[in-house]
Structure formats: structure tokens, C-alpha cells
Amino acid sequence: MSNYDIIVIGAGPGGYVAAIRAAQLGFKTAVVDREHLGGICLNWGCIPTKALLRSAEIFHYFEHAKDFGLSAKDVSFDMEAVVKRSRGVSGRLNGGVGMLLKKNKVDVIWGEGSIEAPGKVTVKKATKSVEGPPKEAPKGALGPGSYSAKHIIVATGARPRVLPGIEPDKDLIWTYFEAMVPKSMPKSVLVMGSGAIGIEFASFYRTMGAEVTVVELLPQILPVEDAEIAAHARKRFEKQGIKILTGAKVSKVDKGKGSVTATIEDDKGKQTITAEKLISAVGVVGNIENLGLEKLGVKTDRGCVVTDGLGRTNVPGIYAIGDVAGPPMLAHKAEHEGVLCVETIKGLHTHAMDKAMIPGCTYCHPQIASVGLTEAKAKEAGYELKVGRFPFQGNGKAIALGEPEGMVKTIFDKKTGKLLGAHMVGAEVTELIQGYVVAMNLETTEEELMHTVFPHPTLSEMMHESVLDAYGRVIHS
Amino acid sequence: MPINVLMPALSPTMEKGNLAKWLKNEGDKVSPGDVLAEIETDKATMEVEAIDEGVLAKIIVPDGTADVPVNELIALIAEEGEDPAKVEAPAGGGGASKPEEAKSESKPESKKDAPAAPPANSEAAPVPSKAPPVPTTGSGERIFASPLARRIAKDAGLDLKAVKGSGPHGRIIERDVRAAIGKGVGKTEAASPAAKPEAPKAAAPAGAMAQGMSADQVKAMYPADSYEEVSLDGMRKTIAKRLLESKQTIPHFYLTLDVELDALMALRKQLNDAATKDKDGKPAYKLSVNDFVIKALALSLQKVPDANAVWAEDRILRFKHSDVGVAVAIDGGLFTPVIREAETKSLSAISAQMKDLAGRARNKRLKPEEYQGGTTAVSNLGMFGIREFSAVINPPHATILAVGAGEKRVVVKDDAPAVVQAMSVTLSCDHRVVDGALGAELLQSFKGLIENPMGMLV
After folding, report:
1. I need a labelling partner for B325 at 20 to 30 A (CA). Which of A191, B158, B270, B309 fits?
2. Is A346 on the interface with B (CB under 8 A)?
3. pTM, to two decimals
4. CATH of B140-229, one of 4.10.320.10, 1.10.3810.10, 3.20.20.80, 1.10.1040.10
């Protein structure tokens, strides 16, 4: 039996980052995983979808080459090659995580971990993986057995939520796992759920030529985003030919031969839509099972482990971070939470992160990025607001890029000048949002943002103009 | 276990100081008594001495760091057998992270470096701590706070000085300000106009003071290449702060009188000639006119005890002994060391003490208790040929005597012109303590003693 200071269960972005930070702080650390270093993010989520969307984006440019004075004939794609590239990207980064762990002298234990008692982790051989058969251990990994650690961090992530009657079957009803590796291009796709995952797949398949319908239960697509931004995005999606049904529920799915027929209900009544594939993207739930948490009395709530914001559960020595510790279920939240958790164990001065300052990015076309409160949420919280908006068409760089559509919206507390929220839709906004995130974390007010010089010509100038607009000082609009 | 070196308190009231200079480098061996660094407060420069033997492993607060709080960790000394390279600052990074721990470990050091609490015989003790509130404007010391925290504090009338920061490196952030507002601490006077009238506030709240022009406003009035900018050291800041405070909060008036010096000069010559000489021919003492002035003022304060007092917010403090400050010009500013109980001291003793204090003032080696306290001061510009001038009262004093040059003057004596040695003196008075007649009485007494100096010998 090997003794560790810290064992992390799950080598996703939260887990492996926590493990590296722990090793940096001098802890003897191991990380347990049953199928892939880097977790869903790196293998089946954030990263491979970005690779797919990049292919779609370039394909889109080829199709619109004429707009830029270029010509491209016989533009087509090879789906197998597109998927192969995406898998290659994941594979490369997956190897990178292994190297990082090794470099930091973090042991990798291969198998399924569970907590016998505080301080004791049992690792068994995994019986399956998301791809089917169990995956082979990476070189140098330790095998099943009993391990002990003063501190155990649960970082087991989340998995797709399954709606009863619409269970994924890997054939007609897909989750993101199957949607990421299509063997051929489906002619039509029905996407259930319009959060980040659903919308990214809708955007990808539409750009690649499929008929796409998106069904959202709530009255707004991208339900966590600002209503104005979501409305703008919806208009763009519909212009691209995506059919969107909001306030609508998939009440029944009939599987046929090579297609599914979904019965969709909204306040106007019932309709049926038949598509080759149905992608279920109705959210994710935490992986809290088979870890021994119930036996230890670790408190959970709605499928997630309850923590104090610094990773501590109600049971001393047991911690949880990332998706399994609750929303927002985002890789960057998991990473940060992992670091905070380990630093708290070390006794460093830590503060629970302010979830209002965690940015969110959706990589559809047009991109969407946001941080902080939406206008509606800010009003609900009782703030008097100063709201600024700036359209892409007022920005020189956007016009030069051929991306004249989009918007940057900023929301300030009228009383204090606090930046409450920033919301963007349009080209490259996922790369822009961090400017506002830094501003928020430094607690700048409109004044400092107005005094900041933004480089010209860049899309970032719109971030400046939006702030100016909130205070009636906009120049180019 | 490395030994923590903490920011010493150079006086009982000191809260922070500047780390002027490290005299040892990381890796240097240190022995007890070695001077490690120089600490500068607004007036004095003091030395931090090593108390233990070891190797200076890590300098945590570098040269030239301003406003280092007392008891902040400034360096680590590796003990014998410890690898200096492995010595690390306590986890938690910046700030006075572990004050309790640090304090207990370095007790001997702080005990040694900190001057003992003022001795019981020092009347000065209550004065500095009860000094009138310092106007916060232009104090020049930076408080790290986020823009949002600053704005919320301003809107709420909260003084950020009263707020403890919880952000990185002790930065004050929104939640600190919100918490402080919730607890109702640090309200500035400006924001509480309904403050109870009986509350013993200063004569004038700081907020009511006119503010000078900003640096940018001043600079805008001169061509950019016509000047060089000189940054302010602690002493210059203190002079600016204290004397502005003086002129803004003390109702000054001025009394000028001519005093004849013939008798004094004669006595002085006689006394100086009579001084015993050592084997090198150096006299045991050499009295200056200023020594007589100090003694005369000290004795006058005994004769007019109502003037031997200072204003203290809602009361007057009247003193038993005459502690007389003497302005000493030094490179870049001035000090006002105090001759304690000057009325009891002989002229030669005053003379000797002045030489010592002035010498150490020039080297900035005065201890705070040597320039704090007193009820009055002497400022003598006679050596520069200045005939007469009005001095600014050095708070919390009630008076200051500005002494001009001794010179031959033609005066009317017995209805005939006569040549006499004379000088003009001007007494600046704080009208809250010293009224016109009282000030005149003090000067009269002073004149009497200077003109009949034998009275100072008995």
C-alpha cells in the first residue's frame, strides 16, 4: 500500500491541474483515472469540438471565397479526415498531460477509484470506457490496489444527462460522444437542447450542410446568456438555415430504420420532425456514483457533491472539485477550483471563487462569450443599470474581416460604476471576453475602462466603445 | 527554523517606517550587534541590529520600501547549520501574514531595537498621542484599494485608512469596504454632518480645509523643461504636513520686541573667558547667545506659567517644567530637538546638550522622544543677519520665539542718541492658549532676563 498526501480521483482538467499544483506545493500526489488523461474536456469535449468547428469554419470560408475576391472550385470535405484531425488533436494533448504529470512527479493510477474510508482509496480494474472496451493504461501508470492519502479529492466530472424515453443508443440517438465522431455526414440532425453543447453541434452540422433543427424547452436559446445576445444569435442561426423551436418539448421519440421521428409539443400544439440523428444535449450530471460517497456520508445535492467553495465537503479529508462539485460545469472553473482546493489544504490564504466572474464561451458561428450578470439578472438583483451596446458594423477591423454582424454589450451598476456583466456575440468574441474578466476581477469601474487605451484596429475597440456607450460617450455609433 | 527579522518600532507610537537601506546582503554572515539595515521614519533614521548569529538568508522587504508596518517580516536569518538557500518566507505570501508567530520568535530583537517606552518623567508622552487630527489631504501615503472599493468608500464617506484589505497583498477590495460600511467603521467627518456637537472634534475638520493645487495644475503653469522634479522624503512630507496643519488650525498672532544685549554680551565674554581649558587649550564650554535665549525663555515660562501650556482639543495642558524646542536647520529640512527642564539647567549644560542634539540632528540620529514634546521653541536666524521674522508654531506648541541678529543700533537713551547692541525677537502665539497680554508678559520677562543676564545665573 502506497502512502500519498493527496490522491485525486479523475484526471480531467480539474483533477490533473489540482494534482500538478499539489506536487508544486510539495505534496506526494497521485491521480486516478480509468480511461483518459485530460478528461472529457480534452478527449470528448472542449478541445475536439474546437477542432471540428475549425474545419467547419474553414469550409465556410472556402464556400464564401468570392466574398474575399478569391475563387475555390469543387469545395468539399472528407468527414473521416475531419474527425481524424479532431481525434489527433485530442491525442496529442492527452500525451501532453501525461508528460506534465510525469514532469511534476505525479503518479498515475489506472483504474476505477473509490473511497473505502477517509484516507483510503481502492482502485479496481475498469470494466469499460466511453468508447466500449476498457482502455489500456498509459506507460508507467500504477495498477489496481489499495492506496492511502491524507486528502482525497473527487474530480470525477460529469456525463450527459439522459431523458427517460430518449436514451442514447449510439446509433440514432447521440450524445456528444457520438456526435463528435460521425462516420458519415447525416443529412438531417435534430438537436435537443440549446446550451453551449447543443448549439455548437447545431452550428457544426449546419455549416457542413445538414438540415438542423434545435429544440429548446425554455423560451430562449442559450438560456444562460443575455436575452438580447441570444436573440441576435438566433437571428443569425435562422439566417444560416437552422430551424429553432423554443418553448418546445420533445415528448416522444420513435426510432425508425435509419431515422428518428420526434414529437414536439409547444403552446401552439404538436408537430413531428424526422431526422437522421437526434443529438441529446440536455445538460450533464455529476459522476457521484460508485465512489463510496454515500457510505461516507458525503453530502450531495441534485447529483453534485456539496462543498464550501474551497473544495471541502462535510467529511474531513474528502474534497470535491469541478463538474462533480456543481455548476457552472466548465473546465476553467474546474481548474481554478482544483488549485484553490489544494492551496487550501496547504494552508495558503484562499478565497472561494466568485462564480459571477467565471466567463462562458460558446464556439458556434457567430461566437458567444459572456461574464457576469445578464441585464435581466442584474435588474432582478435590484441594480439600477447603465447599459452600453456597440455593434460590429461600427468597427473597422470587423468590416475588414468580413464580420460586420455582432454586438458587445456591457452592464454597469449606475451607483458604483461596477461592471456587472459583459456579453458578446460575433467573430472572435471568445478571445475578447478575458479583457472584461480581468477588469472585473480587479474591480475596475467604467472610469478605468474608459481611460484604457485599446489598440487599433482591433475588435477589442468595441469593448471600449460599449463602455463609452453605457455613459453616453460612444464615438463610432 | 530561520530567525525572523521584523520591522522594529522606533517609538511607542510608530506604526510604520521606511526601509531605507540594507547594510548586509543576502548571504552575509551576521553577528550580534551588526547593523543589518537602516530604518527611516518621518524624522529619524535608526539602525536595525542583529541579535543572533547566522547568515542573512533572505531579504523580504527591499531597500527603499516606504511605509512598512511595524512587525512586518523584513528578512530571515538562517541559523547555524541551516542552509540559507532553503530558508523560505512563511507561506501565505505578502503582508504581515503570521504576526503572532513572528512576534514570539523575534521578541529579543524588537525589544532591543525599540526604544524603551517614554520614561515616567517625560511630560511629552501624552502630547504626541493626543495631537490634533492630521488632515488627510495630501498626506501622500498610498492606500492600495480597487477602483470599485475606492468609489464605494467615497460615496459612503468611508475612510479607507480604517479598512483592512483582504485582497492580494492586502489590497482593499469591494467586500472589505462593504463589510466596513456594514460595521459602521471609519466614517469620515465630512460624511457625518450630524455628528454630535458635543463630540470633541478638532477645531476645524480636515474636510473643510482648502486644498492646494494638484501637481498637474502647478506643473501646467511652467514650461515642462524649466524645472526638475524632486521627490519628497519623509522629513519634507512631515514638515509640509505639520506646518500646513499649524497655519490652518492654530490662530497665530505675533508680538515683536527689541532687547538690548550689551550686558549679556559682556557677561558671556566673562563667562567664556573663565571657562577652564583642557590640555589642548580647548575650553570646557563656549556659550552662545542662543544658549542664553533658551535659558531666558525657560525661566520666563516659569514666571508666566499660564503660557507654559499647549492646546489639546478640548482642554489645555499646562506644564510644570520648561521644555524648550530649538529649531536646528539640517540638510534638506530641520529638526526641533527639545531641551528638557531647561529652567533647571545651567547655561553650560544647555550649551553642551545643544551641541550634542544639533550634531545628532544633522546626522538624523535623534530619537523620536528627543524631538517630541515641549510647549515652545526657539528659532534663531540671527547668524544669517535676519533682523526679524515670524515663525510658524510647531504643533502642538503654543508659542515660538523667532530670534533676529544682534547688531549695533542707535537708540534714544535719556533723551540722547546712544549706540547699543540689540536684537529683535518675535513671539508667535496660539491665541487659544496665549492671549495678547499673556504673550506680552512672557516677552517682558524674557526681555528682563536678557537685559539683566545675571538673573539667569542664580
Report:
1. B270
2. yes
3. 0.59
4. 4.10.320.10
